[in-house]
Design brief:
Arylsulfatase family member J; Sulfatase_CS; metal ion binding; sulfuric ester hydrolase activity; alpha/beta; about 600 residues; about 25% helix; four-stranded antiparallel beta sheet
Length: about 600
């Protein structure tokens, strides 16, 4: 099998040639030569990328074409192009500028030329971070406080929430999503194209095979998960690695869009979430990494880094870059058992320790006033909603109660953040801490409940915060993170409250809950105040109708609105007759096509 690169084979429809305004007077011959070489590279290398992996001479020519010449003179809208890139499960340490052994030259360069957000928070798992980004609201205000949206659940982001793309469309933006949705799909109304996106190309579930795009949620519950708008994208099932495939689609969108008109691109890569898969050539630099999961993870991240480079070059080539704002964020902390590293932070994905919720993030844009800086002000993923709407010259209805703040001046100009606290979450149905009680919470809060809150420098956790070890890089042996090398914490009997000064102790090594009971009480009261505004948890049981075997082998909407409509009451005899007819109509269980065997489970 041929080696796969991260920008992929050429799109089915090649991009239009550069407009005449791009031609430099007196240099027609040089441009012609470049154009000829570009076409040749499409045929030879089979992809629309000008990233790493090419020979130096060829790369230099293509960079001269894309990156080193001035952008075409375009009368840009005052509204900036908004590019939000969300990585999946990237650990806090897993970027070059945080000291990682994994090479991320693109991310390092973009961050160094922009603003690094070093006090930036997300949620500990996928669905919550994505829901808060797209609504600007905490989980307690959307009913998604608990876990993730499972493929078999009749659940999705509540339809009464105005989404970010919907607000941007109101002010003239073209809105496109590429990548992982994971905000529910049981009804057609829940699909991305019904929630504000003009186009959608990607997956609906939380994970799946990077090449086949299949996902098994459980034995007998397997299906295809790649969509083009509202239909299964069978035509794109060519065994293309998803990072490559998504980058190629982004290039197509930019090639066909008028840069004079504002665009919102939400690129939610599947990488570096498990299953750990990557094209072979990305392993070359990581043969020295003994642990196989870490090595695969490193290869995946290198491929992602190259993809970001190709997206950036496409923005420059097609005339978007000078009026664009690029935001890069991870959705949660890394998972050490799947190759990720959050060192020196405590904990991992799925926990409310810093390793689960403190994320890699930066903003890169020619529109920034203070470039090449580090922002240590408090910023949360909910803040992107009002920030981007404000940048787009949009309006937020006064009756909408947001939890996010407009932080553009904080990022661009270095001003103080309007945010002074973050409700990390309150999950009333998570497994209760055995030793938690109202008494331990001074009668203010039941500390058996899993919750976490940050107020200025202070962070309070109650209940069961999750796996709490520190996992140093040297612990990645050939058998996985070796817990004998971890700094393990045995939770004290009766412990259900923790207090840290995160500014002074970002690694959560010194619990101050006994030393400062007054601070504990203040934060417990704040938790109680937030809890009064919470809506009921939405976490319905599994619906057997979700089985892809009942939907042509595809994961997709299964709920029909007519199922809810009340029908006229019938007599008992009519009901019995109806029931017998229904039984006759039901097909046998074996009549549905089986899922592919031997699929990689996400």
């Amino acid at each position: 099998m041929a080696s796969r690169g991260c920008a992929g084979p050429p799109p089915q429809r090649p991009p239009p040639p550069p407009p005449q305004a791009w031609v430099w007077p007196g240099k027609m011959l040089a441009v012609g030569a470049l154009a000829g070489f570009w076409v040749l590279s499409l045929l030879t290398y089979g992809y629309l990328s000008w990233g790493q992996g090419l020979e130096e001479e060829e790369e230099g020519v293509l960079r001269a074409q894309a990156g080193e010449r001035p952008e075409p003179s375009i009368t840009a809208s005052s509204q900036p192009h908004l590019i939000f890139i969300l990585a999946d499960d990237q650990g806090f340490r897993d970027v070059g500028y945080h000291g990682s052994e994994i090479k991320t030259p693109t991310l390092d360069k973009l961050a160094a030329e922009g603003v690094k957000l070093e006090n930036y928070y997300v949620q500990p798992i996928c669905t919550p971070s994505r829901s808060q980004f797209i609504t600007g609201k905490y989980q307690i205000h959307t009913g998604l406080q608990h876990s993730i949206i499972r493929p078999t659940q009749p659940n999705c982001l509540p339809l009464d929430n105005a989404t970010l793309p919907q607000k941007l469309k109101e002010v003239g933006y073209s809105t496109h999503m590429v990548g992982k949705w994971h905000l529910g799909f049981y009804r057609k109304e829940c699909m991305p194209t019904k929630r504000g996106f003009d186009t959608f190309f990607g997956s609906l579930l939380g994970s799946g095979d990077y090449y086949t795009h299949y996902k098994c949620d459980s034995p007998g519950m397997c299906g295809y998960d790649l969509y083009e708008n509202e239909n299964a994208a069978w035509d794109y099932d060519n065994g293309i690695y998803s990072t490559q495939m998504y980058t190629q689609r982004v290039q197509q969108i930019l090639a066909s869009h008028d840069p004079k008109k504002p665009i919102f691109l939400y690129i939610a890569y599947q990488a570096v979430h498990s299953p750990l898969q990557a094209p072979g050539r990305y392993f070359e630099h990581y043969r020295s990494i003994i642990n196989i999961n870490r090595r695969r993870y490193a290869a995946m991240l290198s491929c992602l880094d190259e993809a970001i480079n190709n997206v950036t070059l496409a923005l420059k080539t097609y005339g978007f870059y000078n009026n664009s704002i690029i935001i890069y964020s991870s959705d949660n902390g890394g998972q050490p058992t799947a190759g990720g590293s959050n060192w020196p932070l405590r904990g991992s994905k799925g926990t409310y320790w810093e390793g689960g919720i403190r994320a890699v993030c930066f903003v890169h844009s020619p529109l920034l006033k203070n470039k090449g800086t580090v922002c240590k002000e408090l910023v949360h993923i909910t803040d992107w909603y009002p920030t981007l709407i404000s940048l787009a010259e949009g309006q937020i209805d006064e009756d909408i109660q947001l939890d996010g703040y407009d932080v553009w001046e904080t990022i661009s100009e270095g001003l103080r953040s309007p945010r002074v606290d973050i409700l990390h979450n309150i999950d009333p149905i998570y497994t209760k801490a055995k030793n938690g009680s109202w008494a331990a919470g001074y009668g203010i809060w039941n500390t058996a409940i899993q919750s976490a809150i940050r107020v200025q420098h202070w962070k309070l956790l109650t209940g069961n915060p999750g796996y709490s070890d520190w996992v140093p890089p040297q612990s990645f042996s050939n058998l996985g993170p070796n817990r004998w090398h971890n700094e393990r914490i045995t939770l004290s009997t009766g412990k259900s409250v923790w207090l840290f000064n995160i500014t002074a102790d970002p690694y959560e090594r010194v619990d101050l809950s006994n030393r400062y009971p007054g601070v504990v009480k203040q934060l417990l009261r704040r938790l109680s105040q937030f809890n009064k505004t919470a809506v009921p948890v939405r976490y319905p049981p599994k619906d057997p109708r979700s089985n892809p075997r009942l939907n042509g082998g595809v994961w997709g909407p299964w709920y029909k609105e007519e199922n809810k409509k009340q029908k006229p009451r019938k007599s008992k005899a009519e009901k019995k007759q109806k029931k017998s007819k229904t039984k006759k109509k039901q097909p046998k269980a074996g009549s549905f096509p089986n899922c592919h065997s031997g699929l990689t489970h996400g």
